[in-house]
Every structure is written in C-alpha cells, then in structure tokens.
Write a structure and sequence with these properties.
It is a single chain. The chain has about 200 residues and is an alpha+beta fold. The chain is about 40% helix and about 15% strand. It contains six helices and nine strands. The chain has helices at about 15-20, 55-65, 70-80, 85-105, 135-145, 170-190, and strands at about 1-5, 30, 45, 115, 125-130, 130, 150, 160-165, 195. Strands 4-5-8-7 form a four-stranded antiparallel beta sheet, with helices on one face. Strands 1-2-3 form a three-stranded mixed beta sheet, covered by helices on one side. Helix 4 packs across helix 6 and helix 5 crosses helix 6.
C-alpha cells in the first residue's frame, strides 16, 4: 500500500501513522521536494517498513547511483531551522486563497461543468454536464485562445469528458478573463458536437 499526501492541501494532511493504521507493516509514505520548493532540487523521500529498506536502497542505486550530498545537507539545515515549515504555511494559505477564488470565478461555467471537491493540490477538475462533449477539442480551442487546460480523457477513460484547471499561479483577474475564454471555447466546441445530457 502506498500513502501519499499533497503538501498544498487546504485541509490538514494525513499523518504517516494514520496511513500505517490502514495496513500495518505494509504501507509506504512517498513524497517529493520538487513541488514543495523547486523542480531543479530533484530530491524526494520514502518512509517504508524496515523489511523493505534494503530493497528501496538497491532500487535507488540502480536508478541513479547517488544523490548530491551538498544539496541534501543544505535541505536538512533548511528544514531543521524551520524555514520549510514556514514556507509550507505561507504557500498553503496562498493556494487555499487562490483555490477559493478560482471556484468562485468558475461559477461562470456552472451551466457547462460540475466541479467536484477540491481540497488538495493545485488543480481543479470540472466534468461536462452535457454528454458527448469532446474534451480534447475544447482543450485545443482553449489553447487557440491562449488558455492552457488539460482534457480529463488525457488521464484515462472517464465515461464523461471534463477539463483539468491549474490555478496556483494565477491571480484572480487572470482567472476571471481566462475562464471567460474557456466558456467561449466550450460554446464553440459544443456547436460542433452531438450532445446528450450526462447521467
């Protein structure tokens, strides 16, 4: 069993012991500092049951041979001095504010998309209310208008198309104008596709 949590959760993240209670001795906790800090850091971590430590160490050696000791040392000091905890508090508050702003602005799409719960991460998914919509065509039309969204079908079969929105890097004004363009793209694509009401 693998337990994983997002560092940008709006609600408190589950602690490792809670994960372990689900499958005692059989769970692992994986995470990465790439999104927490910056991608170039290339540092991650794994908390695994003791019997699996050797296997994980061997897999690490096969994968890349080593991790930069200097980088690990600087990161360890950064954590021990409390800088990471402060950074997480600030970014969680910022992302939560932007998440709430996005969901408020996204009401402009209420006639087209159903937005599910969005309590963690930096993305929100909206499912089309009308069946038969080609989410890839909508995403392409959005791109033509200068807006980047991802079709939900890109991540696997859903039985119902949708769009995946990133909101963490956008101020509210940009969200408002961008969502207006998404609405235009949906209307344009819906005029070219046979439609049926989604279940």
């Amino acid at each position: 069993m693998r337990c994983h949590s997002s560092p940008s959760r709006a609600s408190p993240a589950p602690r490792v012991p809670r994960c372990r209670r689900r499958a005692r001795g059989a769970s692992s906790y994986l995470g990465s500092f790439n999104k927490l800090l910056f991608p170039g850091l290339r540092l991650a971590y794994a908390i695994v049951p003791e019997p699996l430590v050797g296997a994980f160490v061997d897999a690490k050696h096969v994968a890349d041979g080593h991790t930069a000791l200097l980088t690990q040392g600087v990161l360890a000091a950064f954590i021990q001095e409390g800088h990471l905890a402060r950074h997480l508090r600030e970014t969680r508050a910022l992302y939560d504010e932007r998440r709430r702003a996005f969901l408020e602005e996204a009401r402009v799409l209420a006639d087209s998309l159903d937005f599910g719960p969005a309590r963690a991460g930096m993305h929100v998914t909206g499912l089309f209310k009308v069946g038969g919509m080609d989410d890839r065509a909508v995403a392409e039309e959005c791109a033509r208008l200068g807006i980047v969204v991802h079709p939900l079908s890109r991540y696997g079969a859903t039985g119902r198309g949708g769009l995946v929105f990133g909101f963490a890097g956008a101020p509210r004004a940009a969200m408002r104008s961008g969502l207006g363009l998404v609405r235009r793209a949906i209307r344009s694509a819906s005029g070219r596709a046979p439609q049926k009401r989604a279940p």
